[in-house]
Design goal:
Helices cover 23% and strands 41% of the residues. The radius of gyration is 17 Å and the shape is globular. It has a 5-stranded antiparallel beta sheet. It is built from 3 helices and 5 strands. The protein has one domain: Thiol Ester Dehydrase, Chain A (Roll), CATH 3.10.129. By secondary structure, it is of the alpha+beta class. Substrate binds at residues 67, 118. Residues 21-123 form the Fluoroacetyl-CoA-specific thioesterase-like domain. The active site is at 40, 48, 74.
Length: 134
């Protein structure tokens, strides 16, 4: 009996990305507040970067993923100079819909938790459709 190949995108794929917080990452800089700590939009961007990295080497040729839905709880402030890490795990594949659980930490402290949904799309068709719509 021949082994079935593992599907390219299956639950369990993970990735971790890091960011050392600079002045350009603060809430003041990105317009999401007036305090000099890591801004929520940058936390979200880091979480999404981890989801992209989790599937980057497993995508079918000509495909990409696009973000479709996000739930994010930003729980702790992170000052400039600290390094945060986002870890994403693909927890569900439903056709072209991919669901990730994400945790962002600063050492042992949980900075944010969330869920990110992405859709698997044909890169060229997606871009062509977006250009036509504009």
């Amino acid at each position: 009996m021949q082994e079935q190949p593992e599907p390219p995108l299956a639950p369990g794929l993970t990735a971790r990305v890091e960011l050392t917080v600079t002045d350009t990452d603060t809430a003041q800089a990105v317009g999401s507040g007036d305090v000099p700590v890591l801004g929520t939009p940058r936390v979200l961007a880091l979480a999404e970067a981890a989801t992209v990295a989790a599937t980057a080497t497993r995508l079918p040729s000509g495909s990409t993923t696009v973000g479709t839905r996000v739930e994010l709880e930003h729980r702790a402030a992170t000052p400039v100079g600290r390094t945060v890490a986002a870890r994403a795990e693909l927890v569900k594949v439903d056709g072209r819909r991919l669901t990730f659980e994400v945790i962002v930490t600063d050492g042992n402290e949980v900075v944010a938790t969330g869920r990110v949904e992405r859709a698997l799309v044909d890169r060229q068709r997606f871009v062509e459709r977006a250009v036509r719509a504009s």
